[in-house]
Amino acid sequence: MSHLVIVESPSKASTIKGYLGKGYKVVASKGHVRDLPKSTFGIDIEDDFAPKYINIRGKGPLINELKKEAKNADVVYLAADPDREGEAISWHLANVLGLDSKKAKRVTFNEVTKPAVKAAIKNPTEINMDLVDAQQARRILDRIVGYKLSPVLWKKIKSGLSAGRVQSVATRIVVERENEIRAFTPEEFWKIEALLSNEKGQIKASFFGTNEGKLELADGASTDKVVSAIEKGTFKVKNIKKAVRVNNPAPPFITSTMLQEANKRFGFRTEKTAKIAQELYEGVSLGEHGTRGLITYMRTDSLRISDIAADAAQLYIEQKYGKEYYPKTRRVYKSRASAQDAHEAIRPSDMLFEPAVVKPHLSQDQFKLYKLIWDRFVASQMESALLDTVTIDIENSGYIFRSSGYTVKHPGFMAVYEETKDDDEKERDDDEKEAKLPEVAQGEVLSLEKLSPSQHFTKPPSRYTEATLIKALEEKGIGRPSTLPPTITTIIQRGYVEREGKSLVPSQLGEVTTKLMTDYFADIIDYSFTAEMEEMLDEVENGEKSMLEILKLFYADFASLLDNAEKNIDKGNYKLSAEETDIICEKCGSNMVIKNGRFGKFAACPNYPTCRNTKPIDKDGKVIEKTAERPTDNLTPAPDDVKCDICGGGMVIRRGRYGNFYACAKYPDCKSTKPITKDLNVPCPSCGSKILIKHGRKKSVFYSCEKYPTCKFSTWDIPQEEKCPECGGLLLKKKGKDLVYCINEKCSYSGKLDKQ
């Protein structure tokens, strides 16, 4: 009996191949095979919002190959990711491949490990249409907003713009924060620091208030009053409070907290973190251990941990750190009420693979994220940290100064991991951390070494970073684990929001678009409304509401807003103002303005189309001067045996968009070029011809058959002269690693490179 397993990605297929025995073939659909058309609306609103799906352009050959494989198989297992998107991919595959429910089986696994994959294959299910409908509903809602709103934006702001339901809300959050910063008025306040001492050491104390409570010093006059009084008095210890503070560990990661922590700790952008997590989930080659999925499914908002994982963590902690580092009662974390409990929290899939063990097989960024996930999970299962704290209140002339500090009594989870703090929390904690205050006695008089009053001003709220924007979206109930990374990526790519260092700043385009949306589509970008839509999509997933029900509810209000906008929007001014520069157009003498193009910003003449002059500029707005063409005699000559195919002359090495290449030395009279190649002395596995080294973009190197494109063989990995010891096939070496694997799909051989 033959079985076909279809997953989403080739890397995941490669991992699973090693887990299943003979009779199983694993192939990849490479994501969706069907979608709504790009050129037309694709939704029949009159026919109950029926979507008109088409096969994705360029996927025809792949679909035909999948049909052929499915026809030859007795059972087809649809093993896309275990979420709405994966369920929809499975449903589309079943439709495109013409599979009925008897032949098509749905399998899901929370981790790409051998036990999980085998258990899923043994217990297949039907496609969950509630999950499919939830995905379809989101896709249709986003298509309606995008296609119906975009023409309004083109008409009033700028052609080529596109609107997005969740993206517009995310942009609004960034715009409103920028408006808060602009409207902020600094307020004066003062601090007084006193450096005190006794025979045993020094104490740094800060002004707190009076015996009645905390007192804010609003200006210099009130500060001078306090300073004058205490300079005449004495500092006497009024109260000493010692306690043991219990610090509990943070829960294991969910998608949003993983994205936030990776951004704060490593500066990773959300799309980068999501990509690396996907790689760790789908599988990484670990040499003699084969290809393994290192973490559980990374798109989750559940804090649940399986009993098996908790048992493994307990064993690891007690063996590694000691029984005193494991709590008397196992930790169980409660997820938010809106969380979907289908998946566990993000955790290592196998406690045998410590970060140090797998480090040689991971890229630097993969290792950073894996270790972060490992440490967070282990710490989440550990004993609380105990801190010895001391707070000393010191009185002078009725005013109270306070000094606080702590030392670590028992590190508990802090031996493994501490959550990255925001700047204000970090500053406050650093003042107290490990502060070893000298012993003092109640009623003891302390000597004044130095008194330091200082003026300060309140600061405006900080701009959002990717981490804090994700936190804000989560707090408002907007977005789900699968939508957070693309939402932030989209608003930046579309030019609504720009990066300044780590900060997110709204562009003029983002602000004008938000104003238009607020004026005419306030409900669509209302935080509560958007959160309610997310909840309704969850209800569709849970079978509590129908897809048609929420689409009708949404469209009734949306159509009314759209009609009002089309009738009245001409009354408003939503034009983008050009940013003028001091760059003078040499053709007409005007000051050039900043424009945005597909490759970034550039300077353009404001008199377009009469004057079409443009200039490239750098990130600081300065003109990038064009360099003259280098003379041929300054270029590296090609080897003597490399001759021009047109004129027979010598050739030189030039640098182009796709890397180095050979060009005729008589350029521009002769424009002949040829790629730089090198014979590897390894036969092509497809046709037996030679494999050549070639140069790609950004100095990259790849390998292809000398008869390409007649023979389509090419690879980024390095072909080896040695043959596969199991089947005699071509061995490929991973770049930067001593790992080789067989190119033959039916052979699962992989291992370390034999350096002898």
**Class from secondary-structure proportions:** alpha+beta
Q: How do the strands of the widest beta sheet line up side by side?
A: 9-10-16-15-12-17
Sketch the major β-sheet: 6 strands, antiparallel, barrel
The radius of gyration over CA amounts to: 32 Å
Query: What general form does the structure show?
Result: globular
Strand-residue proportion: 15-25%
Q: Low-confidence runs (pLDDT<50, min 5 residues)? A: 627-631
Report the average pLDDT across residues. 90
Tell me the number of strands.
Answer: 34
What distance lies between the first and last C-alpha atoms, to the nearest angstrom? 42 Å
How much helix is in the residues? 25-40%
Query: So how many helices?
Result: 18
Question: What layout of secondary structure does this protein have?
Answer:
Blueprint lengths: L2 E5 L2 H8 L6 E5 L5 E2 L7 E2 L5 E2 L2 E2 L4 H13 L2 E4 L5 H13 L7 E3 L7 H9 L6 H28 L8 H19 L4 E11 L2 E10 L2 E2 L5 H13 L2 E13 L7 H12 L3 H13 L1 E2 L5 E2 L14 H14 L34 H4 L5 H17 L4 E12 L2 E12 L12 H10 L12 E13 L8 H10 L8 H10 L3 E4 L2 E4 L1 H13 L6 H15 L5 H22 L10 E6 L6 E7 L2 E5 L9 E3 L34 E6 L2 E6 L8 E3 L1 E7 L6 E6 L5 E5 L8 E2 L2 E6 L6 E4 L5 E4 L7 E3 L4
Helix pairs in contact: 3-5, 5-17, 5-18, 6-15, 6-16, 8-14, 9-12
